[in-house]
Amino acid sequence: MFSAPDSYPIDLPTFHSEINLPYTLTPGRAAGTFLAEVKNRRIIASRFASGQVVAPAQDFSSTGGEEPEAFVEAPHTGVLTAFTRVDGQVIGFIRLDGCDNDFPHRILAELDDIAIGQRVEAEWDDSVEQSVLAIKGFRIAPDAPVGAVKALAGTEEPLGVIPYAMKLDYEHAYGPYYGRMFDEIRENGRFMGVRSPGSDVALLPPREIDDVTHSRTGTWKACADTGTIRGCSIINMEVYGQTRKVPYVYAEIVLDGASTRMIHVIEIDSLEEAKEKIKPGTRVRAVWTQGERKGRVSDIERFEVIEG
Amino acid sequence: MALSKVGVVATAQTEFRPAWNNAQHIDLISSVVTSVFKGSGLTIDDVDFIIDSGSDVLDGRSISNCGFLGALGAHHKEEARVEEDGLWAALYGVNKIRSGSSSVGLIVAYSKPSESNVDLYWNAQVEPFYQRPVGFGQRAANGIMAQRYLADSGLSSRDLADLVADRWAAAAASGKVSIDDLPDADAILAAKEGAAPLTELMFARPVDGAVAVLIAREDIARRVSRNPAFITGMGTSMDTHSVAAREAGRLSSAATAAAMAYRNAGWASADADIAEISGSSVIGELLAIEALGLAEAGKGLSAARDGKVAINRSGGALPADPIMATGLVRLAEASRQLSQPETSSGGTPRRAIVHGAGGVGMQNNCVFTLEV
Questions:
Q1: Residues of B in contact with A179 (CB under 8 A)
Q2: pLDDT by residue (tens digit) across B197-222?
Q3: Residues within 8 A of A (CB atoms), B 83-142 only
């Protein structure tokens, strides 16, 4: 490791970032049927040509890949074959009576009270639909009679899609180079880059190694907050994740003193005027956000065209 | 025409820390990519291709390698990303050279799990309809593997803790892993429950860091490296996604991968001198040792601690698991132990087994054999 990242006297807090991804998951025929049938308190399983029964239902064998010949109804009782406890919740493998696979689910008992081979029985949760958690878990049931797999005359229509969301949180480190750049923005209201090897133009954002030559970059250099558009597009379509109202211009701007393009926006009132004035070669200046600077790219609210 | 032989020319790795708070991914990556050439006489200009491993989910950006190309030295070069442990990136690179299409390749893997939530990373890999809602994920998979292993082998939690303590002590002695408080077996047993019967310290500890491995065709490797380790066998195998449907008590995909690698190499596990093995938990490491043929089923512990083959002299994955880079670190460790035996006490080993794993409950396994 180069000494710089370790010893550089910057200790910025991390940069918090979130990713929120909405999904519509498609369970397919087997899982879709299982999830549609939990309201009838039926555990749908797949029966394969070999005679094997797998619960909950699968569209194909996870080991051989073949498709099942029919959906069947598995009993609500079985045997505990393995267990653990995660965050206080006991999770086990259950082999339902008449089935040939293990079903991972919650066990509604204390860890100290359970043992491999114990009889268990599904406990249902009436408040939950369209989820495997309609089975709240499996409770210990020593006297539960051994159930049997039953043929099914018909099943509910499989669920088509299931809304789902995934939220991921991050705390990104700035590192010594981005760290100083954002520090300079906050403290001094200026953009600092580092010189490309053997030249006087700055790379923005700054970095330890030049992307093109893979040699070490040079000394720090302040860039102006004026620059020239080198690429742009008028955004007039709303898309998920946008942070501004349309229309606006997405612009790649080379600040005076830098060699790299920085991405920012230019606000516009009129599409026609924007088409006329905003193009590669147009000179622009930063409009800083009013109030306290936070050390972010958003400390520049936008860029505006330098008239004349 | 026979396929060309491929040698490990040089390796570089950052220190592995619980968090590199003051360095970005690119800082860690450019550090190892710059360092790996030192003393080799080669430069980035000699590299024909770069293959990197990391996780978009851990990195918090999609196609994250796009932003790391400059740090990787990949500007205007052939670059490919392997979304698996770096040992698979090495497998890809070795095959590129063996095929005759290239001569020198750079393999890089990196990880910054400190920026993310490791439980969510694993959760994202779990089946979403039946398993994710009930909380079945990486920890539960390892807990169930452990519960079964202890029941079948007759081992106690104390036995597991003793092995974990050994691994941490070895990592501390290596100086390559940042360890503030070296835990002893008591501390490992007393740690918070991770997934019964495993405590948190019986799981591999996620750490930040990066590793680079420079590989080259035989003639180049012999010219630029004093005593290069050659890759003589490789195997890879993936088990079914459903943990519950896998063979209980055995990492069968690791056994398949190992058989493939030993067949290439023309020797058996007992002929190895050292082994560098991955494991998502102490049970994962024991199961891997057994799957690689280094011990009978249920007997991995004695092989792990004082078997004929020296296993995980680096400490292995338990004290330092840079997720997605762990297997490539094993390759780097093993090749250094073979090429520069004077830098690690333990005689002059000639043959090494290297193992990497990926997926929930070590679904996917990759095995290399190395020789000097």
A1: 22
A2: 999 999 999 999 999 999 999 999 99
A3: 112, 114-117, 120, 124, 128-131, 133-137, 139-140, 142
- Helix H, strand E, coil C: the string for chain B is CCCCCEEEEEEEECCEECCCCCCCHHHHHHHHHHHCCCCCCCCHHHCCEEEEECCHHHHCCCCCHHHHHHHHCCCCCEEEEECCCHHHHHHHHHHHHHCCCCCEEEEEEEECHHHCCHHHHHHCCCCCCCCCCCCCCHHHHHHHHHHHHHHHHCCCHHHHHHHHHHHHHHHHHHCCECCCCCCCHHHHHHCCEEECCEEHHHECCECEEEEEEEEEEHHHHHHHCCCCEEEEEEEEEECCCCHHHCCCCCCHHHHHHHHHHHHHHCCCHHHCCEEECCCCEHHHHHHHHHHCCCCCCCCHHHHHHHCCCEECCCCCCCCCECCCCHHHHHHHHHHHHHHCHHHCCCCCCCEEEEEEEECCCCCEEEEEEEEC
Query: B265-298 as b/e, with b when 16 or more CB fall inside 10 Å?
Result: bebebeebbbbbbbbbbbbbbbbbbbbbbbbeeb
Output the pTM of the full model. Answer: 0.95
B333/B87 Cα distance (integer angstroms): 12
B146 chain-A contacts, CB cut-off 8 A: 84
Nearest CA to B150 among B137, B165, B161, B135? B161
Nearest CA in chain A to B36: A1
Q: Residue B147 and residue B154: Cα distance in Å, rounded?
A: 11
Nearest chain B residue to A23 by CA: give it: B128
Residue B9, φ and ψ in degrees, nearest 5: -85, -45
- Test B248 with A82 for CB contact under 8 angstroms: yes
Inter-chain touch B135–A83, beta carbons under 8 Å: no
> What is the nearest CA distance from A277 to chain B, expressed in angstroms?
32
Q: How many CB atoms lie within 10 A of CB B348?
A: 11
DSSP for residue A194: E
Please compute the mean of the pLDDT values over residues A217-235 and round it to a whole number: 96
Percent of the residues in chain B that have a pLDDT greater than 70, as a whole number:
99
Chain A: residue whose CA lies nearest to B121: A168
Is A84's CB within 8 Å of B30's CB?
A: no
pLDDT single digits (tens) B235-280: 999 999 999 999 999 999 999 999 999 999 999 999 999 999 999 9
**Quick check: B31 and A63 CB within 8 A?**
no
Long-range contacts made by residues A275-279, C-beta under 8 angstroms, separation at least 24?
A275/A234, A277/A305, A278/A229, A278/A232, A278/A234, A278/A249, A278/A251, A278/A305, A279/A229, A279/A232
Q: Best mutation site among A60, A209, A216 for testing chain B: the one with the most B CBs within 10 Å?
A: A209
Three-class DSSP category at A159: coil
Cα separation, B20 vs B261, in Å, equals 35
Mean pLDDT of A244-249: 91
**Contact A3/B at CB under 8 A:** no
3-class SS at A91? strand
